[in-house]
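Write out the 3D structure for:
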Amino acid sequence: MSAMHGVATVARPFDGIPHIRGAGQADEPSDESTDRTLRGDGVVVPTTPPHMKKWRKNHEPGVQSTHPGVADDLDYKRGEEDPIYGRTEPVGVKVHDIMNVAPKSFLLDKANLKKEQIYLSQKREPLGKQYTRGHQLPPSLVEKGFGRATPQDVSGDLTKQLLMPVERLISEEERALYIKSHANYDPGEQRRRGYSWVDEKGPIDPRSYSFGGIVVERDVNGMAKAMNPLIDERIPREPVVCDKLLEDFREVNGEQLGKVKNLGFGDRGFGENQVFGMPSQKGPEWGTRECMGNYTAEEQQPDKDLGRSLKPGWRNIAREGPDRAFGVPSIRKDIEPPTMKSVADHQNYGDEAGAEVILYPPRFTDEGIDQADFLYARGKEEIADIFKSAGFGLTDAEFERVYEQATHLDAGGQVSVESFRKVLNGPTPTQPFVR
C-alpha cells in the first residue's frame, strides 16, 4: 500500500476473537498502550507493613539509617538527640581524690618521709635523685663535676673538620706501610707479593706483562672449541666416509651400558679397563696371625745382650761360670707375691696372663670373669646358687651326689666351679684335681 499525504497508512487493530477477554488494564479502549498498562495509573501500590519497616533500608537523601536492633528501643527514641546508655550512680569519691594521695601540708609530707626512711630503697634510691652507693667524693669533684670543660671559643669550622676532615695526600712510603700492615690496596689494584718473575728471556715486569696462554690471532669461538674439540679445524679427525649424523646424536644424547656418557669432550686416551679413584686397600692388612707367625725362628730368639753386656771392657766375669746372668728378672717368681696387691704395684709375680690371653681372650672376659674365678674354692651354698642361676635344674639329691664326688678331686676336699662342672658333665677322673 502506498503512502498518501493526509491519509492513514496503518490499519487500526481489530479484535479477531471478541469472545475472549483482552489482556492488560485499560481505562479507555482507545488508549490501550504498553506504557499505560505497565504503569497502572490509578492503581494503589501496597506499602510496607509497620513490623517490616525496621528491616528495610531507607535510601532517601538526608535520612539517617537506623539499626534494626534499636528500632523498638523506646529510650533511644526519647533521647534521640543525645542518647545516653547505662545507669546513673550517685556522686561519691572522685577519681582525682583516689589518685592524689600526697600529703596536703608540709608537716604531713615530713611525717610521711620520716616513715619511709626505714626502707632500703628510699635510702639508696631516693625519688628524683641519683643512685646512692655510699662513696665519699672529693669536694672538688662535687663542685666542678667530672670531665673537662669545653672551651667556649670553639667555632663551627672545627666541628666541621671533626665530621669531615680535610683529605690529605698520602706519600708512597706511608701507603707502602699500610699495604704491608693492613693490605690496604686501592680498588682494582693488583696484589703484589714481592715475587721475582724471571723467564728464559730475563726478568718480567708484572705491571706490563700478560700472563696466561697466547691467543691465536683471529681465533673465534674459543669457548665452543674448548667444550667441543671436534669443531676445531686444527685437531685432526678421522675421515668420515658417510654421513653419521644420527649415530653422533645417539652417542651424545644416549646412555650406553657400562660406559660413561659422552659429553663431547673427545677421546681422553683412556682404555676400556681404565679404573678411576684410589683403591680401598693398598696392601695386605696385618692381623694376629701375621704378628705371631711371620717371624723366623732366628728372629724369635732373645736378644744377644739379654742379661749380659756386649760392650768390650764392661763384661762381668762371674766366678760360678760364664753362663751366669746378672740383673733382676722381669717376672719375679723368686719372691712370694703379696696377699693384697696394691694398684700401684706393677711387678709381675708369675701369676698374670701372657700374650696368648691378650691375643685370644677367654670366653667370659667381656663379663669381667677371669679364668681363675672358676678355680677358687667355694662353699656348698655358693656352688648351689651359681649352678641354679645358670639354669641347671638339679634336685637336692643330685646336687649332694655331684658335690660329694667333686670333693674327691681335691686333696683338701674343697670344691670349685670347675671341679663341680667336670663331675657334672662326665665321669669322675681318676687323677685328683689341682687348684
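DSSP finds 15 helices and four strands in the chain.
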